[in-house]
Amino acid sequence: MKRSAHATTVPAFRQRRPAQLAEGELKHLEMILASFVEGSTASDRLPAHYWDMRVAQLDAEYDLVPSQSQRVASLQRKLALLDKALDSAADAQEGQQTRRVAA
């Protein structure tokens, strides 16, 4: 039996996932970010831009409820601050190494 063009649904790649499925991802990302903030800034961790991409995917792939959208925005702000702090720390460390070499 042939399907009419009007009876087709939106392709799966365009459908957003339900908000309830985003909850586990949100909790995971919040936990990871908390460990960044509370722990050291060890260089063996994945870079902040990776986590920023993961947060952006949540916003793009899930049909979030307003409270989840606020949590995503909060994660994005915290990641931006973390990235800025890591850049500042790296710049400071680079400056110390430059001074040691010059001495």
Supply the helix-strand structural class.
mainly alpha
* Domain count: 1
Strand order of the largest sheet: 1-2
Query: What is the mean predicted local confidence, pLDDT?
Result: 78
Largest sheet: 2 strands, parallel
User: In terms of per-residue confidence, which ranges show pLDDT below 50 for 5 or more consecutive residues?
Assistant: none
Structure, explained:
The protein has 103 residues and is mainly alpha-helical. It is 69% helix and 4% strand. It has three helices and two strands, in the order βααβα. The model has no long low-confidence stretch (mean pLDDT 78).
How are the SSEs placed, and which strands pair?
Layout: E1 17-18, H1 19-38, H2 48-61, E2 62-63, H3 66-102
Parallel strand pairs: 1-2
Helix pairs in contact: 1-2, 1-3, 2-3
In short:
The chain has 103 residues and is mainly alpha-helical.
Features:
mainly alpha, 69% helix, 3 helices, two-stranded parallel ribbon, 103 residues
